Amino acid sequence: xxILDFLVHGGHQYEFxxxxxxxxxxxxxxxxxxHESLGRPKQENVFFIQNHNLENLNPDIVMIRAxxxxxxxxxxxxxxxxxxxxIQTNTPFKxxxxxxxxxxxxxxxxxNFSGQMKNKKHHYIxxxxxxxxxxxxxxxxxxxxxxxxxxxxxxEAFLGYNHWSLVNNKLNICDVIGHGNEDIKNNIGTFxxxxxxxxxxxxxxxxxxxxxxxxxxxRGEAMMCGLPIxxxxxxxxxxxxxxxxxxxxxxxxxxxxxxxxxLLSNKSLFNExxxxxxxxxxxxxxxxxYIQKWSNILK
Length: 299
Hints:
- The chain is α/β, with parallel strands linked by helices.
- It has helices at residues 10-16, 74-78, 107-113, 156-159, 161-171, 195-202, 217-224, 237-240, 253-265, 267-284, 287-298, and strands at residues 2-6, 22-26, 46-48, 61-64, 82-87, 101-104, 121-124, 145-148, 174-177, 205-208, 229-231, 248-249.
- It folds into two domains: 2-125; 145-284, Glycogen Phosphorylase B (Rossmann fold).
- It contains eleven helices and twelve strands.
């Protein structure tokens, strides 16, 4: 099976490329990428191409993703290829009529918007991670709090930068990773796998401030690495995150500060949420379930 895809979300697509297929991947504008673009190792079944490589490709499936000028790939559909749209945002982008399958990573978003898309099959697949890759390491943790967002200030309306800023101004122990954050004082850079796992394991807790991000994958990565998370409760949170069991729920800066101080002062609570969080991530965000669900759709 040959799948034409477009690199828009390296972390997600690293997991997606674990499916049994050959993936031919371009940038959103047809530009050439390298393995570094994924922020993850490049698998042997992934081939980075450009527009001029498409002439004899004849893919079986064309992926439709946000920001892609998908109309130019309609000739593949006329030639027999199938289209699959992937929506990883809280509101959907426009899906072409000739795309009959839509995959969502947020059940709440799917329930809210799938009814507006007639004559399409809708599927819900949450993130998937490999517990042998995102693992708990026996290394010393600092007493700092980590968040992972790209373009944090620019996307404040979705990611809750103002909450994060209020928390950091009060406690001054918060760091952020991700690109496009050069104007944030406590930005420590960007990290690819496997270095990313070391980063998760070296912090004391993970703070998710997102307000309208449908299902931030970094929460699952952090949980699987045994990093206790403090998270907002919007979108699909209720399906996976249980307050004071596998996480701490906090929807405003004051509660986030209280939750951080509680974790810092209560080692037994830290250990409980660390262990329960990893177990929950392995249960809910397991790569085996993720691959099986995708495999059923691709077949």
